[in-house]
């Protein structure tokens, strides 16, 4: 069970990361694909400053989400007392 389990877990995590990365969220690859799709429909490129700003906002939102999830996990597993 050891090596095959590890191989299956690795494949599952890789596939999961691929799917999450393709979500149309700015700052991820799916966000870049979304910008390319918009440029294809509009037939003109999006300004680099606007795209960069939108990607920055998406990155900040993802970081806030990561902090909130980590905080909720610390509360759920009662690990905040460990750091006090």
UniProtKB/TrEMBL annotation:
The keyword DNA repair does not apply. GO terms for biological process: proteolysis. Pfam families: Peptidase_M50. Residues 2-65 form the Peptidase M50 domain. Its EC number is 3.4.24.-. Its cofactor is Zn(2+). Keywords: Hydrolase, Membrane, Metalloprotease, Protease, Transmembrane, Transmembrane helix, Zinc. GO terms for cellular component: membrane. The chain crosses the membrane at residues 6-31, 52-71. InterPro entries: Pept_M50_Zn, Peptidase_M50. Its main location: membrane. GO terms for molecular function: metalloendopeptidase activity. It is found in: Membrane. It is a multi-pass membrane protein. This is Regulator of sigma-W protease RasP. The lineage of its organism: unclassified sequences, metagenomes, ecological metagenomes. The gene is rasP_10.
């Amino acid at each position: 069970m050891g090596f095959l389990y590890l191989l299956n877990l690795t494949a599952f995590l890789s596939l999961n990361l691929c799917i999450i990365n393709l979500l149309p969220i700015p700052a991820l690859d799916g966000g870049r694909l979304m910008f390319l799709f918009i440029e294809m429909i509009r037939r003109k490129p999006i300004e680099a400053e606007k795209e960069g700003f939108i990607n920055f906002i998406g990155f900040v939102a993802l970081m806030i989400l990561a902090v909130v999830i980590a905080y909720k996990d610390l509360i759920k597993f009662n690990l905040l007392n460990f750091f006090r």
